[in-house]
Amino acid sequence: MTDHELKELVASLALAQRKTDEQLAKTDAQLAKTDAQLAKTDAQLAKTGARLDKLATMYGGVANNQGAVAEAFYFNSLGHNPVLRGIHFDFVYKNLAGNRQGIQDEYDIVLLNGQDVFIIEVKYKAHPNDLKTLIDKKAAHFKLLFPLYKDHQMHLGLAAFYLDDETIQSALDQGVTVLQRKGDLIETTPATPFH
Q: Using CB atoms within 10 A of its CB, is residue 109 exposed (0-12), middle (13-18) or buried (19+)?
C-alpha cells in the first residue's frame, strides 16, 4: 500500500469515526430524553397507583362493611329465632373457624343441635361462585375440620341481601336453602336436603 493510499485510508477512517461519534452523541441525547420521559411516566404511575390503592381501600372497606352488616343481621335474627326448615337449633355460632391436617376454613354462621348442622354462607350480594364455594369447599371441609359432627345431618344455606333469580334457582336445585332479607325479617326458601 502506498503512502498516499494509507493517508486516504486514515482520512476515511477518521471521517467514519467522526460520523459514528456524531451519531452516538445524537443517540445519547435521545436516550437522555427517553430517560427523562420514563422518569415522568414512573412518577405519574406512582401517583395513579397511590390513588388506586386509596380507592381500593375505601371501596374494599365499604364491601367489607356491607358483608359485616349482612352477617350481623343474619346472626342476630337466627340467634333470636334459631329455626330453619322447621328444625330447631340449640346453638348458633358466628365465624366458626377450623384448622386441621393442612385444611383451614371459616364458616359465617353454623347452627347445631343433637342431630343436625346447618352451615350458612352469608354475602351482601351473592354470586354463583359463592354457591360453588359453599358446596365444593366449605361443605367438603366441615366434617374433616369438625369430626365431632360427622354423623350429623348437614344442611347448607346461602344468605344474602341480594340474590339474582338464577343464583336462587341454582341453589335450590343443588339442595341449598336460600335466606333473604325481607324488611326486618328473614324469608327462607327451603331446598330439599343437601346430600
A: buried
Of the CA atoms within 13 Å of residue 42, those in its CB half-sphere come to 6
Pick the CATH number of 74-189 from 3.20.20.80, 3.30.1330.10, 3.40.1350.10, 1.10.10.10: 3.40.1350.10
Residue 138, by phi and psi: left (phi above 0), alpha (psi -120 to 50) or beta?
alpha
Dist. CA 119–CA 175, nearest whole Å: 12
Residue written as cell 435521545?
30
> Of residues 172 and 67, which shows the higher confidence score?
172
What integer is the mean pLDDT of 40-57? 67
* Residue type for position 18: R
181 forms beta bridges with 186
Alpha helix positions (H), the chain: 3-80, 128-133, 139-145, 165-173
Q: d(Cα 174, Cα 191) in Å, to the nearest integer?
A: 8
Cell digits of residue 1 = 500500500
